[in-house]
Structures are given as structure tokens and as C-alpha cells.
Design brief:
- It contains 30 helices and no strands.
- The protein has 594 residues and is mainly α.
- α17 packs parallel to α19.
- The longest helix is centred in the N-terminal third of the chain and has 27 residues.
């Protein structure tokens, strides 16, 4: 290196130090004409170009300096400063990333973190870029080691980093969905807003990385043995995964559902998450043992939660004579709630409403199966059985609908005795008495202790006109289940229809109805029977009262309702008679006699 070159290089350094960048710029060009291999000249020229606004030349100068054998971080730092001065944020970010990589290679972790922090501050206004940068610091990212730096500001912990990413991604996803929905909903041919929102959610969630971040966050909590944060973040991950499950790739859906089940079991054990309880309540498919363990705890822990009315109904329905407030369950979009509404309608003898509720329940069950890949077989069977029984109660004109559902139930469970019993009764109602009675007789023969089968056989024999055989069958049923009110009602009906053939048959019918009233005061058949007894014995006050009670419990009762209407007509109570007939001829309760 010549003396002249050394003197000029020294002068250039002094000019830069004195901020005389024009002079420094000229000196650097003179130096390059003398020697184009001196690294320091390129650095000084780059600084001069930055301050003189010659950004393109400065960019090329620093880029060349970075390729030189003696290159050090000054070239990368200078390029970062130049891009910052030029206001080119994209190139500034790229230069900072490049500087960070250089510092990592040199093993300067602290300086590398300081540089990465500048990148973070630079992109803070762009959520998507910020998440991408932060992801590089996670355990799977190339800059994870920087979290161990001892610098100011102190790097975040892995958990703090992931928590920040979750907040940003969640906000970003929500904002993107709302923005796109608002754009598309007014387009020509956009369709219903609900469909537009579903399409947008599918697009946004398909690109989102929030679920991956939440999964990493849960793993970080496990590694840190931080149980409180684990429960909080696991709950959030569970709720997010459940909400977005339908947008998960089909090849990953089964694994995601298994994840949900495992997390739900964990969250329920710790009693922290209503959604986890609700997921398991749905998926246990009305398994009495498993559901019983959760139901009371769920209602106690989360009294205002979404499924509480339905779970409370399920608990109440376990009492065979309890009535259930069906109105409290209406409107809850859930296969479990829909199934409980069907059961409540059946218990309350709202037969047509039960049939309608069953249709909605099947739709909810299919939607659930499509989303989770879980078939609610027990719940579907219970709904179909209740609907079939309701069809039988509405009248013989719907016996074919009942028969179809009973056969469906038997296809799902060939050993289901309730479905076999119903099929026998429906077959009789359709006019195939011999076939129906044979089905019922086979049930009795295969299980002599099946009180429902004996009761069904008794009802079939009544329809066939074999009243003596019916009395024997009902007595068998009562011997097996003396506390089961419908058997006493059936026996009373058979005895009453004997019409005095036996000396005390009607008296025995009366006492059977009284027994049934004690066992189940909500059965309208009991009061229609007692009303007939009192009417025959000229006790019109009690007869009127019993018929009114029967109609209040079930205005479709084909015995009590017409007899009560006759009483009203004879009394001159035209308004009451008209009201009763209006109820009977309502579209939901149309009856031929009315």
C-alpha cells in the first residue's frame, strides 16, 4: 500500500467522521482508481452514498463489499443503515435478516438478538409479516437459539412468544373473515350471508396457522410444567379446533377428532371448560353410565352453560313419572338437546310435536356425524323409537309410519325388545293381527319376565276382541311389574269392555284405574276411564272433572274429549264446547270425531 494511498484513506476516514460526505465520496473514488481491493474504501464510500442520498450506488457498494474475502459485519450493518435512510422497509427488513444470519454464523448471539428485535419492531404494523418473523424464533425455527441471548431488551420466553403469536393470528383471522364477508355479501349472486361466511371461513382458516401455533403453545406449557397456563391454553386450543374442525383437511380429520377427545377428557378432569363437557356429553351418545358421571358436575359447575337445560331434562327423564319442561330445550342447536326434546315431548304426550322434533333431531345427528365422523347410534335409536311410539299414539292412520321406524330400529339393533314390541303392535294396527300377535307371543315365549311384551300382547288381544286373553296377559304383566301404571290401565280397559260379563269386572276396572292414578297421575287414559265409571254411576260432577283432567293432559284423547264435549253441550256451555272442538280440529291435533 503506497504512502499516497494511506494518506488519502486516512483523509477519507476523517471526512466521514467530520460528516464532510462530499469530500469523502470524491476521495473514495480516487482510492478505488488506485486499488479496487481495499475493503475499508467500500465501507467509507457506502456511508458517504447513504448520507448524500446516492442509495443505488451505496447499495451496489455494500453488496460488493459483502463478497470480499475480508468482509465483516460492517458491510451488512452499513446496508441496513442505508435502507433505513432510504425508507425502503422491505429491503431494510431483508438486510436486517441478512445481518442477523451473519451474526449467528459468527456466534454473536446477543448482537443477533438485538438485530432480530429491530426486525420485529420494523414489521409490527404488518400482522402477517410479524407472525412470520416470530415463527422463526419458535422451537422449530432457525432463530430459536436467540431466545437464550443475554441482551437488552431481554428476549421473550418460548411461551411468551407463542402467546403473542396466538393473539395476533386470532385477531388477524377474525379481521380477515369480517372484511371478506362485507366485501362479498353485496356482490351480485353472492347468495345468503350464511353461505358467504362459510365460504370465507373455509378460505381464511385453510391458510391460517393459528391451530399449529396453539398446539405448539400447549406443548410448551407441558415442557415448562406450567399447569395453570396449560389448562388455559389447552381450553383455547380445544375450542378453536372444535370451531374449525369442518375446515380441517379430510386426511387429518380423524386425528383431529381424537385430539379433541383426549383434550376434552383432560379438561373435564380438571373441571375448567364447559365446551369440553359439552363435547363429551354429545359424543358419549347417551351412555347412561358415562353421561351420569358428568351431567351433575356440568350443571353444578356451569349453571348458565348452553346445554344445561338439555342435561337437566335428561336427569329429570331418569325419573319414570317426572314431567319435563320441553320449552326450556327448544332452540338449542345440538344433537343431544334435540334428542332430549324428543324424549320430553314423548314423556309429556305431545305426540305430533314429538314426531316433528324427531325430524329435527335426525338432521342434527347427521350434521354431527358429518363433522366429527361419529355416529350417534344409541341417540338415533332412542329418537326413532320415540317417534314410532308417538305415531302409534296419534292413531292407526300412522301405523305404517310407526312400522317403518320400528323396522329401522331393529335393523340397527336386532335384539331391541322395545322395537320388537312396537313392531308387533304396529303390525296388528295395520290389520295383520295374526302376524302381530305371533311377534308378541314370540317375545313372551323368549322372555317370560318381559312385562312390556305381556302388556303389548294384552293390547293386541284387546284389538282382536279376545278380552279374556287380554285380561290374562295384563295380569301376567302386572305380576312382573306391579308399579308400571300402563299395565293397570290396560287391564282396566279390558275389564271395562267385558261389559259386565263377569260379575265384578267393572268394579275391578275401577280399582285398576285408581291404582294407575296413584302410580302415574299424568296418564290421561286413567282419567278418561274413571270418567266413564262415574258417568255410568250418574256422578256427573266427578265424570266431568275426570274427563276435563284427561283432556288437559292430552286433548287428542279420543274417549274423554268427545264425552266432555257432549257434557258441555248438554250444560249449555257453548263457549267451552267450542274451545274444546277448536283445539281438537287444530291442524296439529285433527281428529275425525271432532
Amino acid at each position: 500500500m503506497s504512502v499516497i494511498f494511506k494518506d488519502k484513506l486516512k483523509a477519507a476516514k476523517a471526512a466521514v467522521g467530520e460528516k464532510n460526505y462530499d469530500y469523502a465520496y470524491d476521495l473514495c473514488h480516487d482510492l478505488l482508481e488506485m486499488d479496487r481491493s481495499n475493503y475499508n474504501v467500500y465501507i467509507l464510500l457506502g456511508v458517504s452514498c447513504q448520507h448524500l442520498g446516492k442509495y443505488a450506488e451505496g447499495e451496489g457498494t455494500y453488496a460488493h463489499a459483502q463478497t470480499m474475502p475480508k468482509a465483516n459485519v460492517l458491510a451488512w450493518q452499513g446496508l441496513c443503515a442505508l435502507y433505513e435512510a432510504s425508507g425502503d422497509r422491505t429491503k431494510h427488513e431483508q438486510a436486517l435478516q441478512s445481518l442477523c444470519d451473519r451474526l449467528v454464523v459468527e456466534g454473536n448471539r446477543n448482537k443477533a438478538w438485538e438485530t432480530m428485535n429491530k426486525v420485529i419492531l420494523l414489521v409490527e404494523s404488518d400482522d402477517r409479516r410479524l407472525v412470520s418473523v416470530l415463527r422463526g424464533l419458535t422451537q422449530a425455527g432457525p432463530y430459536h437459539d436467540l431466545l437464550k441471548a443475554e441482551a437488552d431488551p431481554q428476549p421473550p420466553t418460548e411461551m411468551e412468544l407463542l402467546e403473542r403469536m396466538c393473539e395476533i393470528e386470532s385477531t388477524l383471522d377474525s379481521r380477515m373473515v369480517e372484511s371478506e364477508v362485507n366485501k362479498r355479501r353485496t356482490r351480485l349472486g353472492a347468495g345468503p350471508v350464511q353461505r358467504v361466511r362459510a365460504e370465507v371461513r373455509a378460505e381464511v382458516y385453510g391458510k391460517s396457522t393459528l391451530l399449529d401455533t396453539l398446539q405448539q403453545l400447549v406443548a410448551a406449557c407441558v415442557d415448562a410444567n406450567d399447569l395453570d397456563r396449560l389448562m388455559s391454553h389447552e381450553q383455547r386450543y380445544f375450542e378453536c379446533l372444535d370451531d374449525r374442525l369442518e375446515f380441517v383437511d379430510d386426511t387429518q380429520r380423524a386425528a383431529a377428532v381424537e385430539q379433541l377427545q383426549n383434550m376434552a377428557a383432560d379438561l373435564v378432569t380438571n373441571g375448567r371448560c364447559a365446551a369440553a363437557f359439552e363435547f363429551l356429553i354429545e359424543t358419549v351418545d347417551i351412555d347412561d353410565t358415562r353421561l351420569g358421571e358428568m351431567a351433575a358436575q356440568y350443571v353444578e359447575l356451569f349453571p348458565d352453560a348452553r346445554l344445561v337445560p338439555a342435561v337437566s331434562a335428561w336427569l329429570a327423564l331418569r325419573d319414570p313419572v317426572a314431567t319435563v319442561d320441553a320449552d326450556s330445550i327448544r332452540g338449542i342447536e345440538s344433537p343431544f338437546a334435540r334428542a332430549q326434546l324428543v324424549a320430553a315431548m314423548a314423556r309429556n304426550r305431545q305426540h305430533r310435536a314429538c314426531v316433528d322434533a324427531a325430524v329435527a333431531a335426525r338432521t342434527a345427528q347427521q350434521t354431527f356425524a358429518d363433522k366429527y365422523g361419529i355416529r350417534l347410534q344409541r341417540s338415533r335409536l332412542a329418537v326413532d323409537l320415540a317417534a314410532a311410539d308417538a305415531y302409534m299414539q296419534i292413531g292407526k292412520e300412522h301405523a305404517d309410519d310407526a312400522e317403518r321406524l320400528y323396522r329401522t330400529c331393529l335393523e340397527a339393533d336386532a335384539n331391541n325388545k322395545a322395537a320388537a314390541l312396537g313392531l308387533g303392535l304396529a303390525t296388528c294396527a295395520l290389520g295383520h293381527g295374526d302376524e302381530g300377535r305371533q311377534l308378541l307371543q314370540r317375545l313372551v315365549d323368549s322372555d317370560a319376565h318381559n312385562h312390556r311384551a305381556w302388556g303389548g300382547l294384552g293390547a293386541a288381544l284387546v284389538d282382536a276382541g279376545d278380552l279374556h286373553g287380554a285380561v290374562d296377559a295384563f295380569r301376567h304383566a302386572i305380576a312382573e311389574a306391579p308399579e308400571y301404571a300402563p299395565h293397570h290401565v290396560g287391564l282396566a280397559s279390558a275389564l271395562w269392555q267385558l261389559g259386565g260379563e263377569w260379575r265384578h269386572d267393572k268394579q275391578h276396572a275401577y280399582t285398576s284405574w285408581l291404582t294407575a292414578a296413584r302410580l302415574d297421575p299424568t296418564d290421561p287414559s286413567v282419567f278418561s276411564g274413571l270418567g266413564q265409571w262415574y258417568q255410568e254411576h250418574d256422578d256427573n260432577v266427578r265424570a266431568r272433572r275426570c274427563f276435563a283432567k284427561a283432556v288437559s293432559l292430552d286433548c287428542t284423547n279420543s274417549i274423554a274429549a268427545p264425552l266432555l264435549a257432549d257434557i258441555y253441550a248438554r250444560e249449555g256451555s257453548d263457549d267451552l264446547c267450542e274451545e274444546l272442538l277448536q283445539r281438537a280440529t287444530d291442524n296439529s291435533f285433527a281428529l275425525p270425531w271432532a
